[in-house]
Amino acid sequence: MSTLQKDVSPSAPRMDPLDLGPYVIRHLAGSHYVLDVFQNNAAAGTKVIGYSRNSPNTSNQQWMFVAAGADNPGWWYLQTKMSSNLVVTLEPYTPIEPNLPLEPRPLFMMPKDPKQTEYQLWCLQSTEKLGYWYIQNKAHSSNSQTPMVIQLSGTQSAAPAMAGPISFIEFEKQAWGFVPMLPLG
């Protein structure tokens, strides 16, 4: 190339900052329920449920992924937009028998707690359906244990959100999509 010619090679792709929310987290099964903090209650111990999407959007249905830090790469807190301190927390448990299948456990909103991080951290695992994900809890995430993922306990409105053993056969019941919240204006 001559020094008089203009370099027209494509520029490097622009790297936008990671978009971590807020999102509405929509259930694949039926696609009409989203994760919701029960009754818009910003108190510790409030249940997480599946509920019809509110219009206009409300903060109890908006979620942000907050990085867990260098000690837990790839794991995130799932934080409600209602409060910067409340995160989705799996009810702690210890299996009575190590070889018995795990039972689904409820999800609550609790303050971030360094003693409970394994029950408060989440990662995404792809499902068979493009754009939908398993939301996996860090507790019992070793190779020797069945991963626990978010699901709903039923098909009715206000069904409690639970974490249960992953199912590849009925993945639709445990698959979630993310709808970004667009800025107003």
In words, what does this structure look like?
The chain has one helix at 117-120, and strands at 23-27, 33-37, 46-52, 63-67, 76-80, 86-90, 105-111, 121-126, 133-137, 148-152, 159-165, 176-180. 2% of the residues lie in helices and 36% in strands. It has one domain: Trefoil (Acidic Fibroblast Growth Factor, subunit A) (Trefoil), CATH 2.80.10. The protein is globular and about 45 Å long. A hairpin with a 6-residue loop joins β8 and β9. Strands 2, 3, 6, 7, 10 and 11 form a 6-stranded antiparallel β-sheet that branches. The model is unreliable at 1-17 (pLDDT under 50). By secondary structure, it is an all-beta fold. It is built from 1 helix and 12 strands. The longest helix is centred in the middle third of the chain and has 4 residues, at 117-120.
